[in-house]
Amino acid sequence: MSDISVTDAIIRSGVVAVLRAPTADAFAAIGDVLVEAGVTALEVTLTSRGSFEAIAGLRRQLPAGVAVGAGTVLTLDDAKASVDAGAAFLVSPVHVPALDGFEVPVYPGAFTPTEVFNASRAGAPLVKLFPAASLGPRFLKDLHGPLPGVRIMPTGGIEIADIANWLTAGAAAVGLGGPLIGDAAEGGSLKRLAARARHAADAVAFARS
Question: Pathway, per UniProt (predicted)?
Fold first, then answer.
């Protein structure tokens, strides 16, 4: 994917599934379930043991149109290793200046209007609003008044029931971790994961209808 098409794929999905667990052993099975249910953007966090192998495996097994990236990327070395594994995008909880202008899209984290503005001005095609639940959709709506051109991806503490509210407030996409993945990475039911993922995909469709 080109840089533009990766970001467009994330926006089309509407939800980025944040895969975080002590080990990435179950991420392959989780990825299949998510994509089948309509969630087609996956972020493998580097805090999960085996994350680089998981990124490589997901890129091989999933359709070409699925965006697979790395999360919690905090150093240039981690960014390079993630891309070597096949990551099509990188996400960080903060703005890491060393990653500005990197070879794949980087979505830095920001919390204040100044941080959002500076991250966007540095070239971020999407800015991760984090932790979003501490702020709420009204914050995003107000932020887009003076900063209408900044595309924002709220992440952190968002529930499936919140998806439509965030999207109608102006979010380009939302990131969901625990509320979507649940206990699937620790042996939990993949059937229940599929139901949650379908609910998330339906919420995106509802908000955009």
Answer: Carbohydrate acid metabolism
Distance of alpha carbon 165 from alpha carbon 171, whole angstroms: 9
Our measurement of the distance from residue 145's CA atom to the centroid of its chain's CA atoms, rounded to an integer in Å, reads 24
Q: Per 3-state DSSP, what percentage of the chain is helix, strand, and coil (rounded to 5)?
A: 50, 15, 35
Q: Which of 133, 79, 74, 77 is nearest to 102 (CA)?
A: 79
Q: Are 45 and 176 in contact (CB under 8 A)?
A: no
Q: Which residues are catalytic?
A: 43, 128
pLDDT tens for 188-199 read 999 999 999 999
pLDDT band at residue 59, thresholds of 50, 70 and 90? very high
Contact 102, 45 (CB under 8 A): no
- The conformation of residue 110, written as its DSSP 8-state character, comes to E
| Domains along the sequence of the chain with CATH | 3-208 (3.20.20.70)
- Separation of CA 6 from chain center: 12
Q: How far is CA 35 from CA 16, 26, 39, 134, 196, in A?
A: 11, 15, 5, 29, 12
